[in-house]
Amino acid sequence: MEQRTAVLGGGVMGGTLVASIVASGNQNVVVIEKNAERAAELARDYGVEVGTELGLIAGAQQILLAVKPQDMPGLLSQIAPHVGPSAIVISLAAGVTTETIEGVLGSEAAVVRVMPNTPAIVGEGMFGVSAGTSVSAAQLDQVVNLLAHGGKVEVIDEPLQNALTSVSGSGPAYVFYLAENMIEAGVAEGLDREVARSLTAQTLVGAAKLLAESPEEPAELRRRVTSPNGATFAATQVFDEAGVDEALIRGIRAAAHRSAELG
Q1: Which CATH architecture describes the domain 171-262?
Q2: Over the stretch 141-158, which tens digit does the pLDDT of each residue have?
C-alpha cells in the first residue's frame, strides 16, 4: 500500500517534490496550498489532492514542510495536533534545527532536516539530510529513498547543515550568476544572445559532468584548460587581479552565517 505523503507549501520546491513523488509512482499525496491559482495548477498537473485545511495531513506517514523559515514557528504549532505518532516530519526550512521542531512537536517526533536545491526540478538536485534524535535507521532510509527521485542525497551531521546550505543549497544561484556574466560577455563580443546562452549552458553542464566523473581536483582540471599566455590565462589573470576567488569564499561563508541566523 502506498504511503500517504503530505506536502505543506506548494511553491517551487514543494511542487518539485510533489512531481518527484508522483513520478515515482506514488499518487497518495495531499498538498496544503493557500494560493488558489497555484493549488489548481498542482491538482491539474499532478492529479493530487490539494486543500487548505491542515487537518488533511492527519494519517500521513510522511509530512514535508516546504515553507519559509519565518513561517515555521506558527505552522508547527498548528500542525502539532495532526501529526501522528508514526509520521516522519521532513523540514526543508533553511536554518531551522530538528531540536527546534522537536521542541514544538515533542522529543519523540521523528524529524528530518533537509536542504534541497532547485536542480531537483530537472531530477539533478542535491539534498543534504540530517536526522533528529528520534529517527530510526529505517525512517532515515525512507526519507533518502523519497528524495532520491529528485537527485542525489548526502546524509550529514546536523551541525554541518549551514555549511551545506552555503555550498549546494545556494550553489545554483552562484552558477546562474556566472552564467549571466558569461552570456553578457559573449553578447558584448558579438554573439547572438540565444547562441551565447546555449554555449554557456552546455559548457556548464559539460564542466559539471567532467568534475563529477573525474578523479582530478578542480584546480587540476582548470590548469589543463589554461595554456600559458593563452586566452583562458588572460581571463583567469583578470579574475585573480580582481580577487574573485576571495570574494567567492567570503560570499559563500556569508551564506552559511546567514543560514545559521535564520534558525
Answers
A1: Orthogonal Bundle (1.10)
A2: 999 999 998 999 999 999
